[in-house]
Amino acid sequence: MSEIGYSRGLLKTKRASLSTKAKNKGIMELVSMRKIAYLTIDDAPSKDMKEKVGILASKGISAIWFCVGSFLKKRLEYAIYAIERGSILGNHSYSHSRFSTLPLDKCLEEIQKTDKIIDEIYRRADVRRPAKFFRFPYGDKGDFQHRVFNHSELSERYKSDGNVRREEIQGFLRSLGYTQPKFENITYAYYRKARLTGDVDWYYTYDIMEWKIPQNVHHSIVDSLQKIYEKMDEDAPEDQQGLNYPDSEEIIVIHDHPETTCMFKPIIERLLAKSIVFKLPT
């Protein structure tokens, strides 16, 4: 081979090597950009649950469906369908009432009644129940302290009883075998400060807020699918707008409401376009 031919061959090899390095760097950057999230779906099962399970299955996504006991009794086969496709059923109480408005014994009944229904569904599906997860309706832990609850309407006695009730409910959940993953990679300061990591129930770090659209919530900034997209693009990690923040995992909540079924697939695709990778807790 001539010196010119040898030089051209060497140059070609170097270019190929640089191209490979650039490609590998691009892959590594892409991997590092991926954000891990847990997809949770509240208020299931609706009449459209099977359609949504199918959408998720087509994209290789498994979710945690926080189910209302009274809804489960009407649509047992929908819940079995979700289980068979890799999703987990969570407990979202029996009647979806605010726990701070209920007597303590009623709160415990709401939990246990739905727990038994879920056990029966897993038995019928012939699948071992992998874990017991619970989420309070409206995020109201039954301690009169949730932000959407009007504190001014409560007597001082009820306020002082709040922490006692909280511990009673949390202890009851533990006695039934309910757990919350440690979520060590959720790094938001507000999440830690609110004691959300020490409780048994699941909270969330990002609310899609699609539920607001059909309800026409007064003064809501989310009144269309486009506004949902715009909110997703915001960058305010400590204000529960952290989808673009790479240094924390996310617990995302969307709702199984028939009124917003048409938005479900576009929302999931928008989340995937942000390189979000959904997984189930181990």
Describe this structure in words.
By secondary structure, the protein is of the alpha/beta class. It has one domain (45-278): Glycoside hydrolase/deacetylase (TIM Barrel), CATH 3.20.20. It has ten helices and six strands; from the N terminus they run αβαβααβαααβααβαβ. Strands 1, 2, 3, 4, 5 and 6 form a six-stranded parallel β-sheet that branches. Helix 4 crosses helix 5 (104-125), helix 5 packs parallel to helix 6 (156-175) and helix 9 (225-232) packs parallel to helix 10. It is globular. Mean pLDDT is 87; it is low at 1-32 and 147-155.
Search tags:
single chain, 282 residues, alpha/beta, TIM Barrel, six-stranded parallel sheet, 10 helices, 45% helix, disordered N terminus
Structure in a nutshell:
With 282 residues, this protein is of the alpha/beta class. It contains ten helices and six strands. Strands 1, 2, 3, 4, 5 and 6 form a six-stranded parallel beta sheet that branches.
What does the secondary structure layout of this molecule look like, with pairings?
Elements: H1 3-33, E1 35-44, H2 49-58, E2 64-67, H3 69-74, H4 76-84, E3 88-91, H5 104-125, H6 156-175, H7 189-193, E4 206-207, H8 212-215, H9 225-232, E5 250-255, H10 261-273, E6 276-278
Parallel strand pairs: 1-2, 1-5, 1-6, 2-3, 4-5
Helix pairs in contact: 4-5, 5-6, 9-10
